[in-house]
């Protein structure tokens, strides 16, 4: 079976509407389609989808990954802690910024964490795990991921 690659996604020929779609469409697919449309808030599925996307990204280093994350306008990532066992990545201007808080406990940027996990696993050559530890949607000052190397 032939499969699309990320490079295919970058081939665009849309004369009138161009290469952008509005943030509300991305949010709708993410939060209403995935999180609310799938059983269990889409938990396992979102993880599978995110990892697959992460693995498909044409990046070979953490720097390249963070740069692409920003180019794709998911958010502006920056490393706020790093040692041999752990990296913490804060994300400013995350796609979720401005959404109302629905539940104090419910962080909503799980897909983006899974994308980082898939990409970092490929870059590092071994399995890493990424956990969402802060989110604008739960009242934090930014979204943040903790990467266990
Ligand atoms: Zn968030």
TrEMBL record:
| Protein name per its UniProtKB record | 4-vinyl reductase 4VR domain-containing protein
Q: Which Gene3D superfamilies match?
A: Trafficking protein particle complex subunit 3
- Superkingdom: Bacteria
Pfam families on file:
V4R
Q: Where is the 4-vinyl reductase 4VR domain?
A: 86-149
Q: What organism is recorded for this protein?
A: Paenibacillus auburnensis
């Amino acid at each position: 079976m032939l499969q699309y690659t990320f490079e295919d996604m970058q081939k665009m020929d849309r004369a009138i509407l161009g290469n952008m779609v509005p943030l509300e469409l991305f949010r709708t697919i993410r939060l209403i389609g995935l999180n609310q449309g799938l059983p269990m808030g889409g938990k396992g599925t979102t993880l599978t989808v995110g990892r697959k996307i992460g693995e498909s990204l044409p990046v070979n280093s953490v720097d390249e990954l963070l740069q692409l994350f920003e180019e794709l306008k998911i958010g502006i990532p920056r490393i706020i802690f790093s040692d041999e066992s752990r990296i913490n990545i804060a994300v400013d201007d995350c796609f979720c910024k401005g959404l109302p808080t629905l539940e104090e406990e419910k962080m909503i940027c799980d897909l983006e964490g899974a994308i980082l996990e898939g990409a970092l696993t490929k870059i590092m050559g071994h399995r890493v795990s990424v956990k969402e530890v802060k989110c604008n949607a739960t009242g934090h000052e930014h979204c943040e991921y903790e990467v266990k190397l």
